Amino acid sequence: MSNVLHSAALVITIGFVYVWLSIPVLQPYSLQIFALTIAVFFIIKRLAKAKFWHIVPEHASLEITLLTFAFLILIGATGNLESPFFALSYIHLFFLVLATRPPTAIVTTIATALLHFSLAGTLNAAMLQALISLPVLLLIFLFAKAQYDEAKAAEEIIAAEEQQLETVEAKERSLEEFLTTFLQPRITTLTKFSSDPAVPKDLSTQLSLITSEIEKLLRKN
Prior knowledge:
Layout: H1 3-22, H2 30-47, H3 63-77, H4 88-99, H5 102-120, H6 125-193, H7 201-220
Helix pairs in contact: 1-3, 1-5, 2-3, 3-4, 4-6, 5-6, 6-7
């Protein structure tokens, strides 16, 4: 999914959370919709043949929208910035960084902060602190992911170079085996026959040159 579409899907999801929590008749069912959304998420993961403990959403997929909706509904319905479940926001940020590209993660975090601000109305010091923690922690997660991606890329380059070296060494062994077990014995046999006066002198010279080159190549390897 493209970055723009993924960002739009997450922003729309957050907008839907705001609408849900702003309608009094829907608020009592917030915990039920949270449970249902989590159940749908795990059903989708199961249908995708994911193992039970693989709970991180697929990268650039709509799975993260389900977790975004579920976490924000739960937090918003149980006190918003003062919710006992507000710590789930940090887990949400962690999943967001893993499952989206950095611009999408930034846009989603801004939309999430605006959601909490809109639902809070007025902010005290503790609530403001919780709100500020979202972009701060996002930057930390993005920095950590960038470092991880660099280390992983370097590891993949080293692995590729090792594989290439093994391939070259295998080809050298194959060539050496061909020279020592097939070509060299036959050249030696032909060289013995070349001593016959009936054999042209040029052939004897060429066989000697080939033998010399084979020996040089074997010494080099």
